[in-house]
Structures are given as C-alpha cells and as structure tokens.
Amino acid sequence: MTATFAYLRVSKNDDVMTTANQRLELEQAGYRIEFWHEDMISGSTNAMGRPGFAAMLEKIRDGETLIVSKLDRLGRDAIDVIATVRSLADRNIRVIVHSLGGVDLASPTGKLLVAMLAAVAEMERDLLIERTRAGIARARSEGKVIGRPPKTSPKQREDMLASLADGVTVSAAARKYGISRATVIAARTAHRRTSPSI
Q: What are the catalytic residues?
C-alpha cells in the first residue's frame, strides 16, 4: 500500500507563515497524509540541501505521493524546482501542488507546467550568466582584480622567483612562504610568460 507524504517549509526569518499554517491548509483541503516532513530554513537553500527534505526522500518509496502547499516549497528558484521535480519523476513519485488546484506534476497539465518551468529556468541561467559577465567586465574596467587575492605580496613573489632561479626547489619555496606547490608553479609560469628571456 502506497503512502502520502507532505513537505512543509518556512524561512527561519518568517514570523508570519508557519509550518502549522501549511499543515492546517492541507488537512482542511481533505488530503489524507501519513507522513509529515518539514524544514525551517531559508528558501535560498536548495531542496536537496534541506535536512527535512532529505529525510523525506530517504523514506518515500517509488510510486508514492508527495503533497506541497505551494510550488516554491519544492525549491529556491525555477532551476531548483525543475531539478527537484525531475528527480522525483524519475522515481515515479506523484507531486501534488495544492495552490495550483491540486495539480499532479506528472499529469498532462503538470507536465506542461514543468515544461514552462524549464523555460523559466533556462532564462534564469542565461540572465545569471549575463549579469556575472557584466559584473566582471565592470570590475575590470574599474581596475579591480578578479578572483582570489594573491597569498603572497609582490615583493615576496619577486624574492621567491629569484630563489627559484638560484636553484631552490618548488617544495622548499612553498614551505618558506606557506603556500602550495601549485601556487609556486603558477607564479613561476606567469613570470615566464611575461619575461620569456628569464
């Protein structure tokens, strides 16, 4: 016999909406739910990273039913929702969204909704890439260095390169400056590119 699960989530900082409200909403709608799982965690955490959701995934069996009050309980954004829905669909788990009129995301209407979500997710990815590129270009135009700050000062790098040229090993240089061998090799490689004669 298959079971019905409910997943409830509220943000840690949400003083208005509680999981009790979501539980009441689903109970009053007439759903017969055997297992309740919940998280009090920010919506910025993806679904698979939430302890309550992860516990529910371990317990729910293929072919069973998951009910949520709203679609956003399943993920932090369209990209996360679509990934979550697809992983559940792969296990033949029915996903019912109460606020969408109890639509089953495995039904024809649900599949259309998932397809629309996929389009939104793709647009979100494209916009994120575009914003990231624009931010990097702006930072570079303002003379900011992109990436992690160097672990050594220019003077330390100069001394390190001189010691390498004098025969000090990469490992010894790494120990002296408290950095990895890869960092020493990267510094030496970058120096050779700018000063090929050395």
A: 11
